[in-house]
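FW: tagging you since you asked about this chain on Friday. Here's the raw sequence from the shared folder, copied in full. Didn't touch anything.
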Amino acid sequence: MSFLLIIQGICLRARKPIILVDDSLQSQKIVELFMNNEIEFVKYHIQKFEESCCGELPTTKTPSVIAAEGIFKEESLIMNYIEYMKQKKDKGELEVRNNKSIQTNHVDETDSAYW
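HL: got it, structure written out here
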C-alpha cells in the first residue's frame, strides 16, 4: 500500500524511504520488518551504492534509512520509524475510508518517488 498525499484534488504518492544495507543479519532483519509491515521502500546495497553513485561512504552505517522524516542510523531509531509509519498508515487508511466520496485525479509515480 502506498501513502497518498491529496492536494487540491490531485493525489500524489509519498516518497519511499531508502534503506542502505549490507550483507549482515541486522540489515536483513530491517528489510524483513519493512516488508512484513507493508512499508514500501527502495533498497540499496551499500557496496553497489558506492560503486554507482557517490564513491566510498566510510561514515555510513548499515542498515540506515533515509526518509522524508529524517535519517535513521541505529536499529532502535529504525524501529521507531517503522512504528511511526505503521501508525501513519493506519491513520491514512481511516481517513481514506471516511472520505470515499472525494474524487481525485491520480498522478503516476515517477523516478522522483525514489528520491
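FW: Residues 15-99 form a domain with the Glutaredoxin fold (CATH 3.40.30.10).
HL: agreed, and Strands lie at 4-7, 10-13, 18-21, 42-45, 64-67, 70-72, 105-106.
FW: great, closing this out.
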